[in-house]
# Entry
Amino acid sequence: MHDDEKDVVASYKIIIAGPVGAGKTEAIRSLSDKPIVTTEEIASDDVKLMKKTTTVAMDYGVMKLDGGEQVRLYGTPGQRRFDFMWEILSENALGLLLMLNAEESDPVDDLNYYLDSFMPLIKSSALVVGITHAENMPWDLHERLTQALIERGVPANVSVVDAREKDQMKMLVRSLIYMLS
Ligand SMILES: Nc1nc2c(ncn2[C@@H]2O[C@H](COP(=O)(O)OP(=O)(O)OP(=O)(O)O)[C@@H](O)[C@H]2O)c(=O)[nH]1
Ligand SMILES: [Mg+2]
# Structure
């Protein structure tokens, strides 16, 4: 047994999904206790206008919560042309952290798209939503996202976070783990 596997009371596999630029890779970088595994490539076409690199297969990081629970974090690629990875990564996952970019043209539409795509996982596990890039967020966005979740009959905690802030992201992961236990 590795030293870092000692004192692990439980282990959870969590998926982090959401559109390009929502901050999935950044969140895993903030959260992970170890250097993360990424598959970032130089972005092409429209993504290039937003940022230099983009995830093409997956991100992986691992963190330990205060209670000793180990959380394995799997980040998905945001680009829809890599959506075949979403199902592969979701296998045996215990929860979904959906990150939505408040600066996108229609984050409620993004929410509905990801609810449709990840419904099998959501039904068998739990969901939390993190709204990023929220510096100039429309005042009613939180309410509209919460309402959309109620309409779909999906219970979920919606929080405003900055993916670069470890403590904020840790709180979100903790709330997901609480929903599971
Ligand atoms: N201003 C601001 N920037 C953020 C926030 N969250 C993340 N970022 C930045 O936004 C960019 C998001 O990049 P990534 O983490 O690569 O996004 P991603 O979701 O992994 O995107 P893909 O891999 O392309 O799907 C990074 O430069 C982050 O530092 C936030 O809440 N506010
Ligand atoms: Mg990424």
User: Anything to note?
Assistant: The domain at 3-180 is CATH 3.40.50.300 (Rossmann fold).
